[in-house]
Amino acid sequence: MKKLIMMGLSTLGLLMTIMVVVKTPVVASYEIIRMTNQADEKIVFEGFTLNQSASTEEIEAEVDETANEIVTVAVQFDYELISDARYYINRRTNINYFIAEQRRLSKQYHTAMNTELAAALELEGYQTQYVSTYSPFIEYEFEKEVFVENVDNIVGELVESDVVATAYIQNSLDKEAANINTAMFTTGSYYPVINGEVNGTGVTVGILEDGIVDKKHTNIAGSNISVRDEWWFIENVSSHATQVASVIGANTGIARGAKLLSVELYGGASEEIDWMLDRGVNIINLSYGESAKSVTGTYSSQSAYMDYVVRTNFVTIVAAAGNFGATHGYVGNPGLGYNVITVGATNLTGTYREDYSSYVVLKGPSKPNIVAPSGIKIPGYTSNVTGTSYSAPVVSGSIALLMEEFPEYKLFPEKVIALLSASSKYISGFPNYGSEGYNYEVGSGLFDYKEARENPNYTYSYVNTSGTSGVFKQVYLYVESGKTIKAALSWLLNSTNSTTIKLTDYDLRLFDPSNRLVASANSVHNNVEVVVFNTSTSGLYRLEIMQNGSLANGKDWIGLSYSIR
């Protein structure tokens, strides 16, 4: 494996310290990490009841009985690329050029490495193969009958190969797929939009769905949208995708000046995400998820992949939590990503959680992060649309408005997560009581664009390279008596593109003017911490980020934000 990595590096003429030409020079430094853990389980089954110890006979029997027509084998290679280039940007940096250059370098590296390693992996009989260009991932799709016939050879090669860190054998995904102005009024974007202050210009939003947007629909026709609809892809026009686009922007939505990208999900998501990254995407909306029969509330490779994309390519991903709140309540993948903003649903005026909105997680981060209105009446459709599928695009479109005014948010998804968490509204009857400061059902609360728009000066980004425990950062804020302080800390999971989690433990603490600890969030399972405190004394308060133990993966990118109401 070491030889292969060095071959890949030699191919590109790396080790990488590359000068990016912008208005002010920026050095893009990359670190290549060998994933020596090789995961606790080299073979992981998703959508099956099998485990690591299953025999090939047991695998063959269950796949034959329960699999859909396609079995996907998602192979994660034994390397990871971490970029710390954002550390060097400044106010004169051309943000859009910077993002394009970083993605070019990331694509160049991943493509060379993956092509090299794929050649060393001797899998046969697959129907299609996709080599990711932005992550250490390759996807093979097998017809069910072919997989069953060749299960010994397939599993044997995956287990024995030195280039494979983890292989995910997946049952093919079953996807499930009010007035917009009222939702905008509820979240605070209505007046800035209708007054022409913001419209998302200069921001690109990707829509990954069960089909493609109908470019001929009156809500879409003539708007700034690119749809992957080529003869060599099997793409189907989807009313669900068209409705999501109608909420985000186009002719009827929130960010009508934003560029939209639409692509249909088929099998794994890496090919579709690559297509959007190639086209400069800043925000990706995922209003799809696992079906009722496949959702388990457990972090899977779908979410792990999204975590890697966020951390490595500086893109903000927004996902629907799922619509199983009235039954088992499980949040579905990819909405279980640590670095993903997962959105639950409220009624149109944001006064309560809709019963169907999912909130239960068995293994993974606390979700949802926030909630937003649903029950929207979309122009051109006869009925109000309900579901977290329509709450997520309310947030995606609103983030596009924020990125238009504050372009640095394009580069710092951890700041966006912290900002949205700190600026969210309290919903009566849903108090914050978890160790991370979340409410079990609505996360940090109701999404509030108006408050988020007012808080850029109270939102920070840090990089932590310290290997020791202790106070990492302190921020002082003067607050008058009778105000409410809400602060949020967020840091990106350094995903190794696997379901083996390496997460540094941070706490967020608030001290009053007498140096008394008055609020703290100290979870060990989450990468977002939220504190809320109603002040009774005017004076200088102090927010403190506390690191517990060593860094999980060398460096952490951290976002901190607070609001005072």
TrEMBL record:
Cross-referenced SUPFAM superfamilies: Subtilisin-like (SSF52743)
* Keywords in alphabetical order: Hydrolase, Protease, Serine protease
The record's annotation in Pfam families points to: Peptidase_S8
Annotated catalytic residues: D210, H240, S389
PROSITE patterns (alphabetical): SUBTILASE, SUBTILASE_SER
Q: Where is the Peptidase S8/S53 domain?
A: 200-445
Gene3D superfamilies linked: 2.60.120.380, Peptidase S8/S53 domain
What PANTHER family does UniProt report for this protein, alphabetically?
A: CEREVISIN-RELATED, PEPTIDASE S8
What family is it from?
Belongs to the peptidase S8 family.
What is the designated name of this protein?
S8 family peptidase
Organism for this UniProt entry: Paracholeplasma vituli
